[in-house]
Amino acid sequence: MPNAEFTIAPAAVSDAADIHTIKMRAFAEEGRLSGTRDLPPLQEDLAAVERDIRTHTVLIVRADGRTVGSARGQVSGTSCEIRAVCVDPSYQGRGIGAALVRAIEQAHPDVQQFELTTNTLVPGNVEFYERHGYQVVGRTTYTDTIVLAHLIKTTGPATAS
């Protein structure tokens, strides 16, 4: 059984292949539930992961000597889009996803809101983010079976601690 202890650190370009592999494993269930692999997370190639590491905030989680999760943050003005939060299926349910979301938020103390989109077909997706302060602000029909929930967490202006 995997150890519950883990560390979060900025990703290096050399981590891109591990991130890509974990993302493909983590989003496989979403593809199965959706009845298609034609989903942005499953279509992204290794070069796109490398590009994000060079240009945005990309964090990785290591546990038991290997990479087991990742998340990305892309800042635009006073907003940060959180993308590709993924945890290796064998490590899910251990608080790693929540820690990744908090770490992306902490990496961007000056943004006023965080935004993300999640597939409502995956049980618990929307509720997971709602437990962490996100609110559904809209839904988009992506295909006949896929409805995406758009969530926002408003943080307001940064305050000194």
Any overview of this molecule?
This protein has 5 helices and 7 strands; from the N terminus they run E-H-H-H-E-E-E-H-E-H-E-E. It has 161 residues and is an alpha+beta fold. It has a 7-stranded mixed sheet, sandwiched between helices. The longest helix is centred in the first third of the chain and has 19 residues, at 16-34. The mean pLDDT is 90.
Encode the helix/strand succession as letters.
EHHHEEEHEHEE
Tally of distinct domains: 1
CATH class division:
Alpha Beta
List the total number of helices: 5
Output the structural class. alpha+beta
Unreliable parts: none
Characterize the quaternary organization of these chains: single chain
Descriptive terms for the model:
single chain, 5 helices, 32% helix, 7-stranded mixed beta sheet, alpha+beta
Short overview:
Helix content is 32%, strand content 33%. With 161 residues, it is an alpha+beta fold.
Topology:
Blueprint: E1 7-10, H1 16-34, H2 40-43, H3 46-55, E2 57-63, E3 66-76, E4 79-87, H4 96-107, E5 113-119, H5 125-131, E6 135-141, E7 147-154
Parallel strand pairs: 4-5
Antiparallel strand pairs: 1-2, 2-3, 3-4, 5-7, 6-7
